[in-house]
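Page 42, continued from yesterday. The earlier attempt failed because a stray header line got pasted into the input along with the sequence. Redoing it now with the clean sequence only.
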Amino acid sequence: MRRTRWDLTPPPRARNAGPPDMAVVRDWRFWGALAAAVAVLVLAVILLVGDDETSVPSVVGLEEGAAGEALAEFSTQIERQRSPEPPGTVIGQDPDAGAALESGAVVTVTVSGQPGTDPLAEEPAGPVEVPNVVGRQYVLAGASLEQLGLVPDTRMVERGDRWGAVLAQRPPAGTALEAGDHIELDVALATATERLDIPIPDLVGEAAAQARAQARELGFTTRTTERESPSADVAGTVLEQRPTEGATVPELSLIRLVVGA
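This time it went through. Structure tokens are written below.
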């Protein structure tokens, strides 16, 4: 049919034709919804990661034990350095206060004192009562037990979310022990935290307590066994260690110490 310029009747539509451009509209709706979902997911991940981070407190100037309590959410690695400050005083930390770290991350604390020694250690007289060290960082827990003349044996267990925290102790708090008796500590190896590889130091010839302190502060766990010493001058010192010096192993790995009795 011929149409004139004055004929305003719309032309006939093709049979079964759908609304114009609906496929394009549907495509834009699909991609828009997908983009919004991705944006929400990214925002949730960012918020979740941010919630896992904690600001590192300032511990410089604090006594070693107080610093350990303040850093309870982190893995504390201690380095000792000669300083005019009183022994046992924190003189440095890495990272600095205010840094954002995940729970269980390593904070290195520099403490005034002779490297490899515990300046507060004293030989106790008579039986001692085992303190409760569950929940403390194993470095500080071990040091407090050494001060009482006890021998801390540490082993890592894969559970918990506080890297290096003491999860259990045997015997329990309140038990009466003699100097030289052993106490076993279960130390948390948080499975979500990546372990650093660190070289094993040479501990042979060191006094037993100093060797254990040095091993703990470098990031190892220890277990001590006694053996009759070949001579009196090496009694109380490390006769053997396994693994030996120089091997590189993951953080919290066990060093077995054989000490002369």
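Notes: Residues 1-6, 118-122 have pLDDT under 50 and may be disordered.
Reminder to self: strip header lines before submitting.
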